[in-house]
Amino acid sequence: MKSKVTTLANKLVAQGWSRSMAMIKAWQIVKAGQFESKVSGISLPNRQRATERLARYAPDSIRISLRRDNGNQYDVNAVAVMASVNGSKAYQMGFLPKGLAQYVAPLIDAGKAVTAMFKEIRGKYQAWHNYGLAVSVSI
Fold this sequence. Notes:
Elements: H1 2-14, H2 19-32, E1 34-38, H3 45-54, E2 62-68, E3 79-85, E4 91-95, H4 98-109, E5 115-123, E6 131-138
Antiparallel strand pairs: 1-6, 2-3, 3-4, 5-6
Helix pairs in contact: 1-2, 1-4
C-alpha cells in the first residue's frame, strides 16, 4: 500500500503538486481502493456495435482489463479499457476518463496491481441513444 502511495505522490509532485498535498491526495486515492467509472470514447460507431454485442452475454463472462496507451497523442496518461468474453481476444472499448487516468497511469507504469471489472452496460433507452459502459477500478 505504501509503495502505491509513494508512486502516486511522486507523479503528482512531478505534475506540480506540493509534496504535502500530493501525499494527502495519494493516501485518499489508495485508501478508497475502488472507483466506479464510465468509459470515455465509447460513442464511436465500432465501439457501439461492440457494446451491443457485449450486452448479449452474462455479466460474469465479460472480462475487463486495463492497458497503458503511452503513444496517445491526446493524453499522456491514457489508459485503454479492453473487454473480452469467455477468454476471447480483447477489444478496446474506450479509455478511462482523464481525471481517473492521471492517478491510475503512474501505478500501471510502476507495475503496481491495478485491476478492473465489468460493472454494467448503460444507455440505449431510445433508438437514438448511445450505449455506455461502466467499470469498477481497484487500486
